[in-house]
Design goal:
Helix content: 55-70%
Low-confidence stretches: none
Number of helices: 5
Number of strands: 0
Mean pLDDT: 82
Radius of gyration: 27 Å
Distance between the termini: 67 Å
Shape: rod-shaped
C-alpha cells in the first residue's frame, strides 16, 4: 500500500484494512446509485482483484497495495473483507453485463414511446368525447383528427 509502504506490523495491517474497508464502502455506494438510477453510469468499478488492489484515490483515503496476500481468500486477516468484495461483485453482475449507454438510451426511448402512445390515445378520446357532446362545433371540424 502506498500510504503504508514504510509502516510495519499492526500499524501497516490497520492502514491496509481501513483502505480495504473504504474501497468496499465506495463500491457499495456506487452499486446503490446504479440500482436507484436503474442503469450503470461511468463511476469506477474494479473488474478484478488486481484492479481492486491497484485502486488508488488518496482524496477518499483509498490506497493501493502490492501484496497479493491481502486479497487472498486464505488470509485470515482480511477474509471477511474479501468475502464482502465478492458479494458486491455478485450483486453488481447484472449492472456490469449491460453496456452503460446503450441500455440507458433504450430504456429512455421505450418510456418516451409508451408515454407518447398514452398521450395520443388520451387526445383521441378527448376529441371523440367533445365531438359527441357538441357535434356541430365549428372549431372541432377545422382541427384535423389524428
Amino acid at each position: 500500500m502506498t500510504q503504508a509502504k514504510h509502516m510495519y506490523g499492526r500499524t501497516k495491517t490497520d492502514a491496509t484494512r481501513e483502505s480495504f474497508r473504504r474501497k468496499l464502502v465506495h463500491m457499495h455506494l456506487v452499486l446503490k446509485s446504479w440500482k436507484k438510477q436503474g442503469y450503470r453510469d461511468k463511476q469506477f468499478w474494479p473488474k478484478s482483484l488486481g484492479e481492486f488492489a491497484e485502486w488508488n484515490d488518496p482524496d477518499r483515503g483509498i490506497f493501493s497495495w502490492t501484496s497479493p496476500n491481502v486479497t487472498s481468500k486464505s488470509n485470515l486477516r482480511y477474509k471477511k473483507l474479501v468475502e464482502q468484495y465478492w458479494k458486491l461483485q455478485e450483486k453488481a453482475a447484472p449492472h456490469l453485463a449491460d453496456k452503460p449507454d446503450d441500455t440507458r438510451e433504450k430504456r429512455i426511448m421505450l418510456k418516451l414511446a409508451e408515454e407518447n402512445a398514452r398521450l395520443l390515445w388520451a387526445n383521441m378520446e378527448l376529441r371523440s368525447a367533445l365531438v359527441r357532446a357538441e357535434p356541430n362545433n365549428e372549431v372541432l371540424k377545422r382541427i384535423a383528427f389524428p
